[in-house]
Amino acid sequence: MADTALEKAQEDVRAAMKSGDRTRVGALRMIVDALQKEAKLGKGDEVAVLQRERKKRLEAADAYRDAGRTEQAEAEAFEAELIDAYLPEQLSQEELDRLAAEAVQETGATEQKQMGQVMSVLMPKVGGRADGKRVSAAVREALGA
What we know:
Layout: H1 5-19, H2 22-40, H3 46-66, H4 70-84, H5 93-107, H6 115-126, H7 132-142
């Protein structure tokens, strides 16, 4: 059983190679490469790497779609979806809203300019289970914006 996302991705590359799924092999190798680079740098934050790579793929898919290049957009969206399998299960909106409200209460924040304080308390609790855009929106909502 794989202990890390890197080990799981490496196992999945081997399985995809055996099944002859070239598209999947290419996408999985991209994931392995990004995770290995992070490990070599000594950071080891697999969730952050995967979130960053997923975000790149989603932005590229949107750009390709806007340019009318649907085939490339679908390829990028496929890679983003593949990355999702290696990320922790995402928080529901209700859970995120609850955590944001608790962080606002914990910090005693009452206005938007205190958003940074709330985010610094909340992000460790979220632990990669929601992207920063969703978290900041939940904080804005909790602060009554």
